[in-house]
Automatic annotation (TrEMBL):
Domain of life: Bacteria
Quaternary context: Monomer.
Residues marked May play a role in transmitting local conformational changes (site): D102
Role description: Catalyzes 2 different reactions between oxygene and the acireductone 1,2-dihydroxy-3-keto-5-methylthiopentene (DHK-MTPene) depending upon the metal bound in the active site. Fe-containing acireductone dioxygenase (Fe-ARD) produces formate and 2-keto-4-methylthiobutyrate (KMTB), the alpha-ketoacid precursor of methionine in the methionine recycle pathway. Ni-containing acireductone dioxygenase (Ni-ARD) produces methylthiopropionate, carbon monoxide and formate, and does not lie on the methionine recycle pathway.
GO MF term set: acireductone dioxygenase (Ni2+-requiring) activity; acireductone dioxygenase [iron(II)-requiring] activity; iron ion binding; nickel cation binding
Organism: Bacterioplanes sanyensis
HAMAP family xrefs: Salvage_MtnD
Protein name: Acireductone dioxygenase
Length: 182
């Protein structure tokens, strides 16, 4: 279930707000410049599915976002618990970082925990199949796919190099929840 939890950035024990109400999630994220929407899920997909199959199921929505925001490329990331680099990938995504472009992800299957650090707050967004989140360029955040990932996500890029991160060097991500305890 999609949820949001909001904490002060200096106190991970002080839960300020939580909800699974999509309108309230959108409202709180919109206040900090994060776009969130839900799309109907077009049949169950499993990690390992061919990227072309994922993109064809969501072709109209993929095209709409590309035209609206000028994204130059789209790909599919699909990870499951058998991925040989799952631990290294998890550690990389778990460090607070920013990107020079928007980070746009649609969960076609599975789940992940996006955590955004803005305005002296930490916003934990548990995303599931059907959720689209757009984190604007230069927004500090991190992502947890869990120790045994299981998700299929469509990603949009304006940078032809794909996912490029600038790490903050902060250890704040170590203070807050992981996917497996959210």
């Amino acid at each position: 279930m999609t949820t949001i939890r909001i904490y002060p950035d200096h106190d991970p024990t002080n839960l300020l707000f939580t909800t699974s109400n999509i309108s309230k999630i959108q409202h709180h994220l919109s206040d900090i410049g994060i776009h969130f929407e839900q799309w109907p899920v077009h049949a169950e997909l499993q990690p390992g599915v061919a990227p072309e199959q994922v993109l064809s199921r969501y072709a109209d929505d993929v095209e709409r976002l590309q035209q609206q925001h000028g994204y130059q490329s789209v790909d599919v990331i699909s990870l499951d618990s058998s991925h040989p680099d799952k631990a290294a990938l998890r550690q990389k995504f778990l460090q607070e970082h920013t990107h020079g472009e928007d980070e746009v992800r649609f969960f076609a299957a599975g789940e992940g925990l996006f955590t955004i650090h803005l305005q002296q707050r930490v916003f934990e967004v548990h995303c599931v199949a059907g959720d689209l989140i757009k984190v604007p360029a230069n927004t500090p955040h991190w992502f947890d796919m869990g120790p045994n990932p299981g998700f299929v996500a469509i990603r949009w890029f304006t940078n032809p190099e794909g996912w490029v991160a600038q790490f903050s060097g902060s250890d704040i991500a170590n203070l807050f929840n992981r996917l497996d305890n959210h």
